[in-house]
Fold Ring-1,2-phenylacetyl-CoA epoxidase subunit PaaA.
Amino acid sequence: MDLEAEFERAVSGEQRVEPRDWMPDGYRKTLIRQIAQHAHSEIIGMQPEGNWISRAPSLRRKAILLAKVQDEAGHGLYLYAATETLGADRGELTENLINGRQKYSSIFNYPTLSYADVGTIGWLVDGAAICNQVPLCRTSYGPYARAMIRICKEESFHQRQGYELLMTMMSGTDAQRAMVQESVNRFWWPSLMMFGPPDSESSNTEQSMKWRIKRNTNDELRQKFVDMTVPQAEKLGVTLPDPDLKWNEERGHYDFGQPDWDEFWQVVGGNGPTNAQRIAHRRKAHEDGEWVRAAAAAHASRRARQEGV
Ligand code: ACO
């Protein structure tokens, strides 16, 4: 059997592909693209919430938020490490991000205007991330699947802290309840966009499903997210800003409206509300870290010389 046929057989038989296994170039490229975008999203995703660390309303909230933002950095690092097992170079991936050659999730191009946004991001954004990422624990590439297991555990904790924060605000004053509703109004539609374009416009889904990199289509996961979130919104006491949202007895799912896909493509194309700010901030952090990378490289080469490696 030729290598390609053997690979297809192994993948369709649910066997994991490991770094030293033979794999088609397209499979390797698709994985590097998806995992790098995912890693970039975790790293850029530190910014919107990081914005509130110095203004958290209590020491407890500040400690939680700090820990959460640090977790996102850790997720980014596991994922960059997973791309390295495919032969990618982490430095090049960072260059691709700050030069706009690689994407990151559209959701992080929206500003965080109130403290309620910290709760809403935990509930809706991390909730959407979990829906998308739990199936990726069964993705065909071993290092990615294993990274996802730990990431999902932490995301699930993040989601609960967001929901708990919002619950606390909802049991507060009218002004706090209004702040939560306003935040949910802003984040609902961008959260639905996180799953990617409708299946009919998703250029990568068909092949990625065949290779079992993706385990569900974008629309399937979006539906799952809506079904999971509506009862949570009811319990919380907020209204989701979609007049078309209603239970469909026949389908056994909620019907819902479509996000503004023109806005989605604008944001993906670099023209969202905070794209320029996010990239400028990431570029500055990278440049400011140059001396750390130089020192680490000098230290590593001195050690290698001393040990005669
Ligand atoms: N934001 C930015 N770009 C997106 C988004 C999005 N929400 N959704 C899709 N795109 C891009 C795709 O990257 C693709 O562009 P490319 O071919 O130039 O790379 C294009 O739009 C068409 O989309 P699809 O063909 O549907 O892309 P794909 O099959 O990669 O599916 C998805 C997109 C669902 C996001 C997939 O890549 C995935 O599951 N990734 C892993 C999870 C992830 O990256 N999460 C990040 C946010 S979660 C968090 O960080 C907390």
Notes: The beta strands are 246-248, 253-255. The longest helix spans residues 142-170. The mean pLDDT is 97.
